[in-house]
Amino acid sequence: MNRSIVAWPTRRAALLLAATVVVLLLAALAPVPTAMGEPWPEPPPRARQAKAPTLDVVRVTDGAARVTGAARQRRVTVQARWGGRWKRVARVRVRHGRFAAEVALRATRAGQVRAVAGRWRSRPKPLPRVLAGDIWQPAPGGGAEQPPGPPAPAGPSDACGPQPRRADGSYWSCTFADEFSGTELDRSRWAPQTVFSSGDKLGRYACYRDHPDNISVSGGALHLTLRREDRPILCLRNGLLPTPYSSGMVSTYRLFSQQYGRFEARYANTGTVVPGLQETFWLWPDDRYQKPLDLWPAAGEIDVAETYSQHPDLAIPFLHYTWNDNGGPVPGRNTAWNCRALRGGYNTYTLEWTPSRIEILVNGTSCLVNTSGDKAFQKPYIVSLTMLLGSSGNKASDATPLPAGMSVDYVRVWQ
To answer: What's the CA angle centered on 387, arms 385 and 392, to 5 degrees?
Structure first.
């Protein structure tokens, strides 16, 4: 007789018994729903802090609340309520630990918003009512009506306005200022860029043009506009096929450059959470002082602020230097992900640069300090302002809102 046939019922009974024990243990450990609409009990404080999503910004613009936050999960559900039960308003993907969504506001009453990821919930944040005076309205071309600024501090003034104070108590002195108070670009200060392009070179990309549709001055601001043209246009000297996208970029190329000092720009961008838009306030080495073998990235580049619609609550600085660009982004050394700047309104970006120290501030808050004193930062740089079509993770799509713009309130430089 085959003994394996006789032993099979015994082994099957043992396996069934073991499976039953496991199921009973799992059932005993599983949490029990507490109430309709609240299926899980509140987690302990430490566990909640580790796994629950967080909401850190709720900004009102154009009749909606722009909600951003952080989460460890891959997707987050945004819920809102106006006196009743929580209702789902968006399901969004988490990228690089961050997420963003928009919630339409109601004129009748205030509400609350929260983020949910599985059993984990963030703390609710208040949603205000729609008030006409509280909503920032974009100007044509993606600019912005200028909100009232802070009161001017007491102290001496010069061509840049009130003089900011150095750490040692002395005052910075103005060397360059443009308040964009006229109706045309001041070409004694700024040169339009018409050579390079931005975006995905094998897909959607934009040409830079010296055209009023892309570069204009009005309402006390410089407007750089990214738009889709009715017909494809050909970029100059890039060897690519014609594209329907055009944009604007200006710099102080061979008009102004400076080594060390304080550089500041205040600009607004188009308020959206849809990827595809990028704006940059940056410095590039003056080629009149470059050595023949000074090649990028070792030659240097100072990106004071790069703002991406993919990250609607951040401004990202980046310092490019060394032959391998430090091996990529190193937070705290050549970049930072803690510079809060909300899209859809004005933010102020500042660089303070000495022979041994570079500090970048956003709205007066320091978010990156570099003390490398690298040779890349020991020469004059020019100032550039660029409106880009996004690429890589911030790639443009049919959903990217166009036209979109960057409205620059002022650029000031001190020494």
So the answer is: 120
Distance CA(367)–CA(291), nearest Å, equals 32
According to DSSP, the β-strands at 404-414 and 381-389 are unpaired
**What pTM does this model have?**
0.69
Q: What is the pLDDT of residue 11?
A: 58
Q: How far is CA 20 from CA 14, 27, 44, in A?
A: 10, 11, 30
CB 258 within 8 A of CB 413: yes
> Across residues 398-402, what is the average pLDDT?
94
Predicted pLDDT at 50: 53
Tallying the residues shown for the chain, one arrives at 415
Give dist(CA 345, CA 341) in Å, integer: 9
Does 310 have pLDDT greater than 80?
A: yes
Model pLDDT for residues 187-228, shown as the tens digit of each residue: 999 999 998 889 987 789 999 999 999 999 999 999 999 999
Q: What's the farthest any 2 CA atoms get from each other in the chain?
A: 107
Residues 6+ apart with CB under 8 A from 18: none
pLDDT, tens digit (0-9, with 9 covering 90-100), for 145-184? 444 445 545 578 999 999 999 989 999 999 999 999 999 9
CA proximity to 94, closest of 59, 118, 112, 58: 118
